[in-house]
Protein: GFA family protein
Organism: Sphingorhabdus contaminans
Amino acid sequence: MMRETRSGGCLCGAVRYEVAWPPLGVSACHCTHCQKQSGSAFSIIARVPREALEVTGILTDFYDTGESGSPVIRRFCAKCGSPLISEIQQEPLDSFFFIKTGTLDDTSSVVPTSHWWTSRAQDWFKFPDGAVIMDRQ
């Protein structure tokens, strides 16, 4: 499969990134931590190998413990606070970055095929037909 690159960044433009595309997967995480971090019902994330992402600019890290009990580093623009990247520090997920897909310059073809932590999903949300549904992650 031929890989292209996509670019993205934060709201103010202080942080920019290039990422190999397509990602290994696109998911919607419904855990309460992603809900609070995104200010929405879920967070749409793309899983990419660490070596596939190149970031410029200053990020601020927030150290969290996910609902799974695993350490999570949530990375934000130091200037405007836009959430950009999450890192899960548990094998085998620690070899990947999870980028917030809303920060891509081109969001075409970004469709989540799996939904994580559906046990925490908002009551009003209807899961798409054919999507992989995981009660937890």
